[in-house]
Amino acid sequence: MSTQTxxxxxxxxxxxxxxxxxxxxxxxxxxxxxxxxxxYLHHGPAAFDDDPPQENPLTLDRLRTVSRNDIRxxxxxxxxxxxxxxxxxxxxAAIRALYRHLVRIEALxxxxxxxxxxxxxxxxxxxxxxxxxxxxxxxxxxxxxxxGLRDR
Length: 152
What we know:
Layout: H1 5-19, H2 24-43, H3 60-65, H4 68-80, H5 85-104, H6 131-139, H7 146-151
Helix pairs in contact: 1-2, 2-5, 4-5
């Protein structure tokens, strides 16, 4: 007999809220991400939906059969549908957390998400000073004092 998603999701949600003390936003996002993953696993990419149904056919039996390639395919699908690398990374974090939880409570033996690399995230360049700002900074010390000379 398999455990249906609501039981898995309810346990996971309790774990996130209680033991991990996750924020409401993290909790909501992780639960949505896990539901989307379940929809993807059950229906495949063609039926993937941004707002999956509440009755998701995700079972422990199905989670046992998931490979790292299944997870990678899901993340690739998220990005081909317009999701950013940051969104895919969050979804991977949710899937990893679900598997970690299920392994910890001994519902599953293996965490296939553990070996999946997170998507490369773009990094914003730091703000830099303009040439006039740099000039003003260099010329700011009072050169009539020893400390001002040193600082200049």
